[in-house]
Amino acid sequence: MSYSDNNSDPNQPKPGTRLYNPYQDLHLPSQTLYHLPTSPEYLFTEESLHQRRSWGENLTFYTGSAYLSASIAGGAAGFFSAFRSFEPTDTLKLKVNRILNSSGHSGRVWGNRVGVVGLIYAGMESGIVAITDRDDVWSSVAAGLGTGAVCRAARGVRSAAVAGALGGLAAGVVVAGKQALKRYAMI
After folding, report:
1. What are the pLDDT digits (tens) for 36-49?
2. CA dihedral defined by 177, 140, 147, 58, rounded to 10 degrees?
3. Is 166 exposed, middle or buried (0-12, 13-18, 19+ CB in 10 A)?
């Protein structure tokens, strides 16, 4: 049972809350109302001071968006690849089958490869933000640099260094573009 103040009316909303009736769409008379907060509740006050995504949200967002975009691009590449591999004797059913197989295969391959890069980037960025306690452009650039280096580490030091530099440059361009859009496009 929850604590209730004897001096206040339980049906009147408290400041910062709104009344919620779970049965409002059923059009039944009900006296069961709940006070729901209008802003997010945090367990610790330190959490409310930082306006950024958590590591789990970063992991989900970067991995999912990388997988989705690469799957779409890979599916489109497979679609055009299937058109190039048509033979004059193919029937319509065989052509459709070829398109579906090729676009599905390319979409999965591209999605998995780029999704893993997004996963590594999310882990790197969340780790850097947790260590430095700063979420700025340099954290994203360092995460891009580390991601590029880790993804190409098996091919040697030179390849890892080049990929790290390209990853840091790409992350910097994306973050700078995002800030420019916020400033000039008023998004």
Report:
1. 677 777 777 777 77
2. -100
3. middle
> How far apart, in whole angstroms, are the C-alpha atoms of residue 131 and residue 117?
21
- pTM score, whole prediction: 0.70
Residue written as token pair 């319509």? 92
Reported as a single tens digit per residue, the pLDDT across 101-141 is: 999 999 999 999 999 999 999 999 999 998 998 888 899 99
User: What does the alpha-carbon distance between residue 181 and residue 187 come to, in Å, rounded to a whole number?
Assistant: 7
Q: Which of 102, 101, 63 is nearest to 81 (CA)?
A: 102
Spatial separation of the C-alpha atoms in residues 24 and 36, rounded to whole Å: 15
- Residues shown for the chain: 187
Q: Which residues of 124-148 are buried (b: 16+ CB within 10 A; e: fewer)?
A: bbbebbeeeeebeeebbbbbbbbbb
Tokens of 82: 């299937």
Q: How far is CA 147 from CA 2, 125, 162, in A?
A: 49, 9, 12
